[in-house]
Amino acid sequence: MPRFVANRLLALIPVLLGIIFVTMLVMDLIPGDPVALMLGENARPEEVAALRAKLGLDSPLLVRYARYIVDVVQGDLGRSILSNRPVTAEIGDVFPHTLRLTLAAMVLAVVLGIASGVISAIRPGGWMDAGVRLLSLIGLSMPIFWLGLVLIYVFAYYLRLFPVGGTGTWRHLALPALALSAPSIGIVSRMTRSSMMEVMHEDYVRTARAKGLNSSSVILRHVLRTSLIPIITVVGLQFGQMMGGAVLTETVFAWPGLGRLTVLAIFARDYVLLQGCVLVFATSYVLINLAVDISYAYIDPRVRV
């Protein structure tokens, strides 16, 4: 297991290097000059040139890429062009909010998704199965930003049960977490149902029933546990996608997280801050996938063999 983890961590290095390079390349291709944007329309050419040299933007792409990699290894993500603060400080201020939102949405997706999937798999073809599949389809079909606006109108504006936006108490967290988790609830529910349906008629399940085990024990200890491998795979992928989906959710609900900071960096052409945000998103995604791979061996002993 330690060797497996070490090999996977080494394999993440070229992935992150490629993400950084693509991000820098895309930022170079976007029209406009961030330095001219900072100094304003009345800036003189020599002032623009001096600031470009100070920020290192006058160097070729590969040179800037190599310098940035050296700085990242040392824990330096540069300074924000917009605020002149260290990027690590900017991200450190908002990342806990994004992590809290994503974890809350993930808990909702896992609990509601697996529970509804189990209910649907136990009675296939019944009215409960049809209702769960319909709700899953609705959750998958609605865009996050549209669902967020609907939740704000119904529960914040009309019923006045939750605040419109911002952060603070659990009431501020409820609506954005629900909007962010809705597609994942549908995906986890459908995957749980299909995985359990494949296992229901296996020989060891019939043997467990023949031994006299009650239905709940058979479902939870035998059917659901064997079905967890594909479910965990989907949960891991959804966790990573939630980090990206937080960009829309945080914008709609004015949630001061990493996604909203990324949007501000894009509009301000703050390429240094944007590179740091993308790097944090990418690192989080690959580490989540690594954790999912490691969890396989602990859930299913056959994987260790």
Keywords:
305 residues; MetI-like fold; mainly alpha
Concise account of the structure shown:
This protein is an all-alpha fold and 305 residues long. It has 2 domains: 2-73; 94-304, MetI-like fold.
Describe what this molecule looks like in 3D.
By secondary structure, the protein is mainly α. It folds into 2 domains: 72 residues; 211 residues, MetI-like (MetI-like fold). The protein contains 14 helices and no strands. The longest helix has 36 residues. It starts with a helix and ends with a helix. The mean pLDDT is 82.
Mean pLDDT: 82
Q: Can you tell me the residue ranges where pLDDT is under 50 for at least 5 consecutive residues? A: none
| CATH homologous superfamily classification of the largest domain | MetI-like
For this structure, what is the CATH class of the largest domain?
A: Mainly Alpha
Calculate the terminal CA-CA distance, rounded to whole Å: 12 Å
Topology order in helix (H) and strand (E) letters: HHHHHHHHHHHHHH
Give the total of beta strands.
Answer: 0
